[in-house]
Amino acid sequence: MSLQTLSSADIQAEKLDSWGFRAGAKVEGTCAISGKSISKADGVSTGIWECEPGEFDVPNRPNVESVMILKGYVKLTDMDSGSVKELRAGDAATLEKGSSVKWEVIETCRKFYVIA
């Protein structure tokens, strides 16, 4: 068994790798993303992801993702119901398989994610 831990300070200070720009960004050249994969095993991925301001859609999500916002400010809009949720540091959300969500990154967002 492997146990990995990261303190809050470690997560905030973690150097991330450039992952280019978020596919599907509404305005070209926005939503620069970076991240670090922490673990990939048995169909579950965990890591840290950061995105600069911009907007993008995730239609018909192919998996389940749970996130904890570490810094920044985002608005998530359920594209089916129109319901809007605002998330800031300390807030969490689960995006279900099959959901369609519009992301509006208002302030550069860093999140810890679990994808299964």
TrEMBL record:
User: Known CDD domains for this protein?
Assistant: cupin_TM1112-like
Coiled coil regions in record = none
Transmembrane regions listed in the UniProt entry: none
Name the UniProt record assigns to this protein? (S)-ureidoglycine aminohydrolase cupin domain-containing protein
What species does this protein belong to?
Answer: Triparma columacea
Give all residue intervals belonging to the (S)-ureidoglycine aminohydrolase cupin domain.
Answer: 40-113
